[in-house]
Amino acid sequence: MKGQDLGPLVGCHNSASGGVHNALLEAKSLNATASQLFTSNQKQWRGKKISDEEVEKWDLAKAASDVKVVISHDGYLINLGSHDKELLVKSRVAFIEEIERCLALDLDFLNFHPGTATDKNPERCLDTIIESLLSFAPLFEKKRKLKLVLEATAGQGNTVGHTFEHIAYIIESCHRKIPLGVCIDTCHIFAAGYDIRTSAAWDKTLKEFDKVVGLKHLDCMHLNDSLKGLGSRVDRHSCLGFGEIGIEAFKFVMQDKRLKHLPKCLETPQKEARWEDEIQMLKDFYYEKH
């Protein structure tokens, strides 16, 4: 997918209520070319398998839409870096089930939060995340389209993954053994202390990411403005242009040669959702340079 000119790949997190295919129907109604969804209830440990009937409905909805890239987001309970053995086992089982649902739907990416150091030991947490990810290698022995993408975090509480060094440590330890990349969330990296408010600031941040992690590992993005300020370590999303980041940052994302072709999904607040307008605005930014 990288290097291919598929036009602007933009969308948002779509509701799969009533069936996963409904996420694609919603994406189509918003003129989206990318989509993100939960394949199962994100607040429960166990999710049901995807049936053949659901796959058929999914395929029909996909064919009838303009969606070219689909991303799953893992459940909120999963913590691949937990120090609690029982919770770690449950997290790994739930993640395997998520991978299986993604494979059944032939999705492009499975986005996941790295984990939380509930014992306040980030080094131990990072090593446990690596152990978890490597344990999934047998699921990828056959060549798969699906790629796991590690989402950069805001660093709220005891979460890990808020520094490029954290992300690089996980990527370097795993990417040769499992298909693993990175998802940058604009709100998260801004809250974590990486300035992206101007073109110059974005350029500096991307150069740092390339030096520490490598831009070759960047596969997709979440586009969110931030309710809180630079380095706040608080994960609170805002609609594009209505937060502390500002609209110039998102214009840069849609036009910079390093980022413009990556799939991008909005996770802006649902109660204030302007998804159709935001998607069109992002497309307009892209076409200003084409």
Summary of the model, kept short:
Helix content is 38%, strand content 16%. The protein is built from nine helices and twelve strands.
- Tally the structural domains: 1
Give the overall shape, derived from the CA principal axes: globular
The helix/strand series, from N terminus to C terminus, equals EHEHEHEEHEEHEHHEEEHEH
What is the name of the CATH superfamily? Divalent-metal-dependent TIM barrel enzymes
Q: Tell me roughly what share of residues is in helical segments.
A: 25-40%
Unreliable stretches? none
- Please give the order of strands in the largest beta sheet: 1-2-3-4-6-8-9-12
| Rg value | 18 Å
Which tags fit this structure?
290 residues, alpha/beta, TIM Barrel, eight-stranded parallel beta barrel
What this model shows, in words?
- With 290 residues, the chain is an alpha/beta fold.
- The protein has a single domain, classed as TIM Barrel (Alpha-Beta Barrel).
- The chain has 9 helices and 12 strands.
- It has helices at 21-29, 52-63, 85-104, 122-135, 164-174, 186-191, 199-212, 247-255, 275-288, and strands at 10-13, 34-37, 69-73, 109-112, 115-116, 147-151, 159-160, 180-185, 218-223, 225-226, 237-238, 264-266.
- An 8-stranded parallel beta barrel has the order 1-2-3-4-6-8-9-12, surrounded by 4 helices. A two-stranded antiparallel sheet has the order 5-7.
- Helix 1 (21-29) links the parallel strand 1 (10-13) and strand 2 (34-37).
- Helix 1 (21-29) runs parallel beside helix 2 (52-63), helix 4 (122-135) runs parallel beside helix 5 (164-174) and helix 8 packs across helix 9.
- The longest helix has 20 residues, at 85-104.
- The model has no long low-confidence stretch (mean pLDDT 95).
